[in-house]
Design brief:
The structure holds two protein chains of two kinds. Chain A contains four helices and five strands; from the N terminus they run H-E-H-E-E-H-E-E-H. Chain A is an alpha+beta fold. A four-stranded parallel β-sheet of chain B has the order 3-4-5-6. Chain B starts with 16 loop residues before the first strand and ends with a helix. The chains are: A alpha+beta, B alpha/beta.
Chain lengths: 160, 194
């Protein structure tokens, strides 16, 4: 009886603890998020940016091809004519309003593919969660980088 | 020998005051509400409410690599009576909406809701007759998470945001009120690794 108890109860428990003990020696897999962000995959698509040329002009020419390619219909573009006095982009037109509903966006990257000038790009900043729905309408002011190459800078977590 | 208390800070506001722990002996004065909020924020028990593909990422958040247990939210509960944070993970169909509402009503107060993913937050690509265009039409949502689906780190960021919301409910003048970290010092990578 006691031998059976030893075989059927004590042995499996000790075997189980043995696995735990061997696992203790291994390297931990936990990423210490948010102090340490895991390395994102090279083609990760998160937050959108509207980029500029090196001259400071906006790349976006207001053609609305991104809005046409968007499967969630979350992009709104309103174009206006460039004038020689007030030149925003090298082309004839520029986007006077550019809005993305970030909460409806599914981050498929079709807008990035459709863009003929490479204006809209998706970068690796995933910290987009917020408290209100209104704060998810990303206007042109929020999307447009203030100087060329700003969105390529390494991104840092807000909690680190 | 017990440590001598050097400074006793008297104050008349409802904000917490942290004593100087370096001088040996310290006093932490706070309101019960703030202390309770700290406890609530650091022991969020989410409800297992996976509706679609976002649930896979939600499970991954609890798993070893991301390990939500570091923030006190490891205990996913299958019954609403034992949960205080509902993560709506996935698209919410109109047939599911009354069920969601009933489960939300069964949760004990205080309770919070995270709307995870584009579909739960706004309908996403499913702008059709079957899907509720935003779970906030059914239940009040505290934190929205964009993404399709949001990666585990994005969901973890949302849970940290929710913790901030819970902790800042009463003491709004301290922008980043973290009672535990103000005693132990700020979190650093070396500290959390050890």
């Amino acid at each position: 009886m006691s031998l059976e108890l030893l075989r059927d109860v004590a042995k499996p428990i000790l075997q189980g603890f043995g696995i735990t003990g061997r696992r203790l020696a291994r390297k931990k897999v936990t990423v210490m998020d948010p102090e340490e962000i895991r390395e994102q995959f090279p083609r990760t698509r998160w937050r959108h940016y509207l980029t500029r040329y090196d001259s400071g002009l906006e790349r976006c020419i207001g053609c609305s091809l991104c809005a046409g390619a968007c499967p969630a219909r979350c992009i709104f573009v309103e174009a206006a004519e460039n004038t020689d006095e007030d030149r925003k982009s090298p082309g004839e037109r520029y986007a006077v309003r550019y809005e993305i509903n970030m909460i409806r966006c599914i981050f498929c990257g079709y807008c990035q593919d459709a863009c003929p000038t490479g204006a809209i790009v998706l970068k690796k900043n995933f910290e987009l969660a917020d408290y209100t729905r209104e704060s998810f309408i990303y206007t042109k002011e929020r999307l447009l980088e203030s100087y060329p190459g700003e969105c390529d800078a390494p991104w840092k977590s807000k909690y680190a | 020998m017990p440590k001598r208390i050097e400074t006793v800070v008297l104050h008349d506001s409802s904000t917490p005051v942290i004593g100087d722990i370096q001088k040996g002996g310290s006093v932490v004065i706070t309101t019960l509400e703030t202390a309770l909020d700290q406890a609530r924020a650091h022991s969020l028990w989410p409800l297992t409410f996976g509706l679609a593909c976002c649930a896979i990422e939600m499970m991954s958040t609890v798993a070893a690599r991301f390990d939500l247990a570091r923030f006190g939210s490891e205990a996913f509960r299958a019954t609403p009576r034992q949960a205080d944070c509902m993560i709506i993970a996935g698209r919410l169909s109109k047939k599911m909406a009354p069920v969601l509402r009933q489960i939300y009503d069964q949760m004990p107060e205080p309770k919070w809701v995270i709307s995870m993913g584009a579909c739960a937050s706004s309908g996403g690509v499913y702008n059709n007759y079957a899907i509720v265009q935003g779970a906030d039409q059914v239940v009040p949502v505290d934190v929205y998470v964009p993404g399709c689906p949001p990666s585990p780190d994005a969901l973890m960021y949302a849970i940290l945001k929710l913790q901030d919301k819970i902790k800042r409910k009463e003491a709004r003048n301290f922008k980043d009120l973290r009672l535990i970290e103000s005693v132990t010092g700020p979190r650093t990578l070396e500290k959390v690794k050890s």
